[in-house]
Amino acid sequence: xxxxxxxxxxxxxxxxxxxxxxxxxxxxxxxxxxxxxxxxxxxxxxxxxxxxxxxxxxxxxxxxxxxxxxxxxxxxxxxxxxxxxxxxxxxxxxxxxxxxxxxxxxxxxxxxxxxxxxxxxxxxxxxxxxxxxxxxxxxxxxxxxxxxxxxxxxxxxxxxxxxxxxxxxxxxxxxxxxxxxxxxxxxxxxxxxxxxxxxxxxxxxxxxxxxxxxxxxxxxxxxxxxxxxxxxxxxxxxxxxxxxxxxxxxxxxxxxxxxxxxxxxxxxxxx
Length: 271
Ligand code: HEC
Ligand code: HEC
Hints:
By secondary structure, the chain is mainly alpha-helical. It folds into two domains: 13-160, Cytochrome c-like domain (Cytochrome Bc1 Complex, Chain D, domain 2); 172-247, Cytochrome Bc1 Complex, Chain D, domain 2 (Orthogonal Bundle).
């Protein structure tokens, strides 16, 4: 019997952690390239299969990883087109940034830890074991999207979520009008989304209060260049903030900072 249960106590990164990363401090000048994914040009054999499975898990998370997620969305709800869209939660060059010092956690984190954050907060769930085929497949996929990137290179700012200040104070009343006109057709008047394709923006099935998307400037940056999905880029900076402050004025799941994260025991088959 060699069943070890790995337990990760969250205390270290508890302080209102966000699925937004502690920010990178790497100074390399070379920007990372854009991420591209073409199934027909994957490496042949088992390595290519692992990468393709990782892509499948990111775009159809709920179908494959049901026990690990409670939010009614897939990773690609925020990492648009499987994390290949510039300014849409792109994974371009991300793998070259890890292991990474995390200020909040006060320790170095692995790429798996970064995925785990999004499982905990954005997906309001918990991560698969770090050595599971699922976790390794997602890491392989994100690493594949980072191919050609110099290790330690800073991702090209053009691929990152946009960051800008609101021209005026964000106003939820104006935001409500924008929401009714330009968002509710897909995300529903009550913010719960509709069908499997249109993810919830608030309520019990949305991301929790620790998520990166729960920060006003992050949501405004995402919405500005990705929403409304049928006419992205048509909102002004001010409208993106107004509608985001309205969305974030509603209730959503809370994250239990004292929760202990226990990974399921895995059969020992080490090498
Ligand atoms: C509700 C939105 C949302 C969902 C769903 C989500 N994420 Fe994220 N994720 C974010 C945001 C926001 C960031 C921070 C991006 C930034 O700082 O530019 C992020 C960052 C990341 C990063 C680090 C990349 C970077 O830009 O530094 C990884 C890796 C990641 N997410 C993986 C996942 C995985 C895997 C899933 C599904 C299990 C997932 N995310 C689901 C919102 C989300
Ligand atoms: C035509 C349908 C459609 C419209 C209209 C639309 N969205 Fe979305 N929204 C989507 C889809 C689909 C996604 C998943 C990402 C993707 O595939 O682009 C998404 C994802 C999101 C997300 C990230 C995931 C989540 O659930 O938190 C936010 C935030 C968001 N939309 C906000 C808005 C806002 C604000 C508006 C109005 C300005 C809007 N959307 C209008 C379809 C739509």
